[in-house]
Here is the input.
Amino acid sequence: MSIKQFLSFTTLFAVALAQAQGNNNGNNGGNNNNNNNNNNNNNNNNNNNNNNNNGGGGGNNDAGGTQLDPEVIQQGSFTDGKSSIGAEAVQAASATSQNNFINFCKGQTLTNGLQITTGSCNGIVMGQIPSKDRMVSTVILNPPNGATLQSGQDFTITVQVRGLQAGSFTNAASTYYSAPQQLNNGNIVGHTHVTVQDTGNNLNPTEPLDPEVFAFFKGINDVGDGQGQLSAVVTGGLPAGNYRLCTLTAAANHQPVIMPVAQRGSQDDCVRFTVNGGGNTPNEAASDGAKGLAAQQLIADAVALGPGAPDPNGGAGAGAGNNAGAGNNAGAGNNAGAGNNAGAGNNAGAGNNAGAGANAGKAARLARLRRRRFVA
Here is the structure.
């Protein structure tokens, strides 16, 4: 073999070797990017999805892990309480679990951040619970109990809340109950709502009111005066009638606030008042008002589109849904739990809409979905 032939052969060999290695790396990269969900399904905490989630999740305590850490197993769930301290014959036996009920919702309709009106099962942990001296307590300042208002006239509902870091209000159409209750400086991070219901012919009904029917509802998503005082304007007032006004205090993801002890005062408050006059026009934030109906339609649309569906108008909601840096496919985590590889790495090419899983079948509905103001 001549020197020229030898050099030509070695050159060709080197090129072929480089190409093979490139293909190998490309395939491995593709496998890592697109098949990490297989690792998740096999509970391998060292897969790329885990590394990415841990890197982007910040203080979420291994938010991308798919295994139960033995350090967080709660031994209080091992027994049913019937033979434990404080047991009484009339008490019901608690359900028990050796693994924090981690698979409790298996085989059931998952909540998945949606307001599913037909019922669902939510597997998200309750979260952080405040100390006894940081429990939430609320008093309604206006209208006062027994007040008389004029129909059709604006008025302001004002409440004073302690133990709550107000102003944290997540997207109720797509992140409902989707994250645990959290604390900041010992206080629950969240918000409150005010809801007004017609009590009928008098202020003291003998039958429970229908929770699906309300004369006014508003989620207060701001910080108020920064000292716990929050307010909501009832624009247009209320029709003549008798009413009960209550607060509904919630954590950021809308779940009722969880307290550290059973024996306590209520975290919420209610007052009753009367509206006089000839007005009978429902408020737009009533269950049958324009805003109330729009909110209900938005919730129904979100459920129809499925978990993590992006904002069809490309607004802030769509940007938040992608959040690769904040939780690395947190929106797609539900898909990963369902075993869909879209939750893992198919987004590497697109980079967006991970929560939607690039569901082309939903495109038509997304295009038709118009922007609505959510009033909860």
In short: The first helix runs from residue 3 to 34. The chain has nine helices and ten strands.
